[in-house]
Write a structure and sequence with these properties.
alpha+beta; Heat Shock Protein 90; Ribosomal Protein S5, domain 2; Rossmann fold; 4 domains; nine-stranded mixed sheet; five-stranded mixed sheet; 35% helix
Length: 636
């Protein structure tokens, strides 16, 4: 640090009410580590300003090496942030550190002294520098302006009270050193790894090199006797940031491998993304960034908080729910916008017109990208569909404008792994899956393994079955019924195959009314469960003897309750009610009628019923054990 010269000025910061520093410490900054972000950001700003002045001819000196350096001294309990930027004269220190920072301070204190946040004052008080007093008993600035004579500098010192001391001093280099004398409660920051982690978190992509200590590197040092290269270890400066991140470059400069390399830089342990969108907007707001589509499938909750928000390459937060539409919160990547309003501590986003416009723009760009991929290479789009459909379906459910674009590239996948757009699927099933009222019935399965017997029954009727087995599909189904005209969706096991699509056609029963009543009584006695309603139905002799179903309405309400369906939550507590359809035209029904004695009839009925339960994975515990024993007896 430069030697202190004579005292030039002492003064009092003009505040008409209580000291502002406790307000800063208590209310403004909830996370003390951000003091380093603020001070390094200020140093970067000072460096950028000098580069700008040089580019327009207002500074003609040698720029030299422009970087910011962070250092600490554990013994002296100091942390220093140094730059070689524009620097300040004594008068500028008074202006920028005292007057601007405390303009309106009385009103600020009065307004916020009894509140836990300060969300309304962004940019009004220039308080970033004063975050230093969260961790320091005393803060010192030694600064030499780029306009000052050789070695001429100023020194400012404040102990966190309203009093400051400003003196003249000497300093070899242009720029500013900010020295923090760390208080006893904040000595955790006098640690190399702690400081490095903060710098990597907040300053990883700042546009000026940030030096922090040194590191060992292996460099080539000639060759050995066999001509193989030799290496030696050397100590080099440790630069902790990437000053030219990918999102700050023009898309025309970049190749696919550049985007993939940057993704690995952001998420070192993740699979490669499917594709990405490079955002680059100048008007009516400024927004740059890259959003990546990861492989998500049904892993819905674990992927959140992966989008990082920056403001002029300074990390702000990974809580971007007000900027990014909720259905895109599963994306990964970076957004950078100086137009997103933050509270004074940059801890919280504030809602305003720009935030809404940015959110709408992101939605539009995502829709445009998906449409482009679909049109460009449909086969490749279909390969990606299992990974991206969760984004698309969530967007359709939650955003009307997104639906208008997405309806042209959203795909149905059937159990035969064929893909159809909404319009294509309508044309495919309309001839055979229209009911007597003119409604087109889409039949779906939520679990092809468990529902295979029902799928095969539907296929025997030449019906097509689509796969809707995702975590959002119960909500997606409801949305489709609202959007698609004269269209209903029914789960393949919600009815017998004959009744899935009511075409007004009837199969004649081979049983008399008396025989139907007799069979119904046998099954009701064998089942003995008030939550299962029994009915005799004339079906094809080739259909199953007994079919257990739950109505589409009840099933859907239950599914909605499981996935957080709000008003449907009460359905989760209701008992399951099933319909038991007895195929009156099946050979087993005739066998039961002809069996001798009530016990023999009941055993056959119970066996047929348990087979139906087994096909639905509803047979468990003692009932399953008894079924197996009974099966062995019948076979024997």
């Amino acid at each position: 640090m430069a030697e202190t010269a004579e005292v030039r000025e002492k003064g009092t910061i003009s505040i008409h009410t209580e000291n502002i520093f406790p307000i800063i410490k208590k209310f403004l900054y909830s996370d003390h580590e951000i003091f380093l972000r603020e001070l390094v950001s200020n140093a970067v700003d000072a460096t950028q300003k000098l580069k700008k002045l040089s580019s327009i001819g207002e500074f003609n000196g040698d720029l030299g090496e422009l970087r910011v350096e962070v250092s600490f001294d554990k013994e002296k309990k100091t942390i220093t942030v140094s730059d070689r930027g524009i620097g300040m004269t004594g008068d500028e220190i008074k202006k920028y550190i005292n007057q601007i920072a405390f303009s309106g301070a009385a009103e600020f204190v009065e307004k916020f002294k009894d509140k836990g946040d300060a969300k309304d004052i962004i940019g009004k008080f220039g308080l970033g520098f004063y975050s230093a007093f969260m961790v320091a008993d005393k803060v010192e600035i030694v600064s030499r302006s780029f306009k000052a004579a050789e070695n001429e500098a100023a020194r400012w010192e404040c102990d966190g009270s309203t009093e400051f001391e400003l003196t003249s001093t000497t300093k070899k280099d242009r720029g500013s050193d900010v020295i923090l004398y760390i208080n006893s409660e904040s000595e955790e920051f006098l640690d190399e790894w702690r400081l490095k982690s903060i710098l990597e978190k907040y300053c990883k992509f700042l546009p000026v090199e940030i030096k922090f200590g040194t590191k060992e590197e292996s460099v080539e040092d000639g060759t050995d006797e066999e001509g193989k290269p030799k290496f030696k270890s050397v100590t080099v400066d440790q630069v902790i940031n990437n000053p030219a991140p990918l999102w700050a470059k023009s898309p025309s400069e970049l190749k696919d491998e550049d985007y993939l390399k940057f993704y690995k830089e952001l998420y070192p342990f993740s699979e490669e993304p499917l594709f990405w969108i490079h955002l680059n907007v100048d008007y009516p707001f400024s927004l740059t960034g890259v959003l990546y589509f990861p492989k998500v499938k049904n892993d819905f909750e674990l992927q959140r908080n992966k989008i990082q928000l920056y403001s002029r390459q300074v990390f702000i937060t990974d809580e971007v729910k007000d900027v990014v539409p909720d259905f895109l919160m599963l994306l990964h990547g970076v957004l950078d916008s100086p137009d997103i309003p933050l509270n004074v501590s940059r801890s919280y986003l504030q809602s305003d017109a720009n935030v809404k416009k940015i959110s709408q723009h992101i939605t539009k760009k995502v829709g445009d990208k998906l449409q482009e991929l679909f049109k460009k290479d449909r086969a490749d789009f279909e390969k990606k569909w299992d990974d991206i459909n969760i984004f698309v379906k969530y967007g359709i459910i939650s955003d009307e404008k997104f639906y208008e674009k997405a309806k042209d590239f959203t795909l149905f996948k059937n159990v035969d792994k064929q893909y159809f757009t909404f319009e294509e699927y309508k044309e495919k099933v309309k001839p055979n899956q229209t009911d007597k009222d003119g409604n087109i019935i889409y039949i779906y399965t939520s679990d092809p393994g468990k529902q295979d017997s029902f799928i095969q029954g539907a296929k025997n009727k030449a019906y097509d079955v689509i796969l809707l087995d995702g975590v959002l599909d119960s909500h997606f189904i409801n949305t489709l019924e609202q959007k698609l005209e004269k269209t209903q969706l029914k789960r393949v096991d919600s009815e017998t195959a004959d009744k899935l699509i009511d075409k007004g056609e009837k199969i004649e029963s081979i049983l008399s009314t008396e025989e139907q009543e007799q069979i119904k009584g046998v099954f009701e006695k064998a089942i003995n469960n008030k939550n299962f309603s029994v009915a005799i139905e004339p079906m094809s002799p080739n259909d199953l003897p007994v079919v257990v179903t739950m109505s589409e309405f009840m099933r859907r309400m239950k599914d909605m309750a499981k996935t957080g369906g709000g008003g449907y939550a009460f359905m989760g507590a209701m008992p399951d009610n099933y319909n038991v359809a007895i195929n009156g035209n099946h050979a087993i029904t005739q066998k039961i009628l002809k069996a001798e004695g009530d016990e023999a009839k009941a055993k056959l009925a119970k066996q047929a019923y348990d087979l139906a339960l087994l096909s639905q994975n509803l047979l468990t515990g003692a009932d399953l054990t008894n079924f197996i024993k009974r099966s062995v007896e019948l076979v024997s």
